[in-house]
Design brief:
264 residues, Rossmann fold, eight-stranded mixed beta sheet, 8 strands, globular
Length: 264
């Protein structure tokens, strides 16, 4: 783990490898940068890969106030500045995708290519907004220990939950590394995120869109429709994977990512 200081305080990140255009991977809620370990291993020796922890997740201290998604994007930009990186291949899964859209608004010229995994461009409907409020209240009242029971069935496919207990435990452990304040802040940021649908047609860099066949949050239909609106994109749905497709189907995910990167 390494650390850099942003305007919001210290943040931690993982880094490995070397390459002309580094790959920066933004994690899902409520995990941390460790979720990208299979991809960092697969790309070892071929690409420089960087995976930060958002404020309040993993080893990064909680944010100083209630952030919006732009705040998280600003932290990414400050990381690039600190590491003297001009252009990157930027990827995000779930909440990481929301931050990718914010990065597209904030520093589009620094993005060489995109990975959008298990995410969606539209804002929360009112039902989802209310659900995030309720989760935030429970975490604030009961602590982070309540979060795995609220999230596991949303994050992982039924087959994973039944037959891959090592992965289930790893995801649970990552959730429990989050701070209650960080979780509550992220829920607020996601709840209030803007509609990014209008951005899709303006994306002018190669884009890989990857999801899970069994993802009930960012369904194959949602992912496919998003991909169709992005010029120069390709869409792939991975079998036996839910919302965390990079962890549930790492072999297929890595193969698609490596092929995409090799063509850049």
């Amino acid at each position: 783990m390494r650390e850099y200081r942003t305007s919001g305080g210290p943040m931690s990140y993982r880094e490995s490898g070397d390459g002309k255009y580094p790959v920066v991977l933004l994690h899902a809620f409520p995990l941390n940068g460790w979720m990208w370990a299979p991809q960092m291993k697969a790309l070892a020796g071929r690409r420089r890969v960087i995976a930060p922890d958002y404020p309040g997740f993993g080893r990064s201290p909680r944010p100083p106030a209630q952030p919006d998604v732009r705040y998280y994007a600003e932290q990414v930009r400050e990381l690039l500045d600190a590491l003297k990186i001009d252009r990157v291949i930027l990827g995000g899964l779930s909440m990481g995708g929301y931050i990718v859209f914010a990065c597209l608004r904030l520093f589009p010229k620094r993005i060489r290519a995109l990975l959008l995994a298990n995410t969606r461009p539209d804002p929360d409907p009112e039902e989802a907004r209310q659900a995030r409020r309720e989760v935030a209240c429970r975490v604030a009242d009961e602590g982070i220990e309540v979060l795995p029971e609220l999230q596991m069935e949303r994050l992982l496919a039924p087959d994973t939950l039944k037959n891959n207990q090592d992965l289930v435990q790893s995801v649970r452990d990552m959730i429990l590394e989050s701070s209650p304040d960080g979780v509550v802040a992220a829920l607020g940021a996601m709840r209030e995120r803007p509609d990014s649908t209008e951005l899709l047609g303006k994306i002018n860099v190669p884009t890989l869109v990857v999801g899970g066949v069994e993802d009930e949050l960012s369904t194959p239909q949602i992912m496919g429709e998003m991909a169709r609106k992005i010029p120069s994109s390709r869409h792939l749905s991975l079998a036996k994977a839910g919302h965390l497709s990079n962890l549930e189907a790492p072999g297929a995910f890595n193969a698609a990512l490596q092929e995409f990167l090799d063509e850049l």
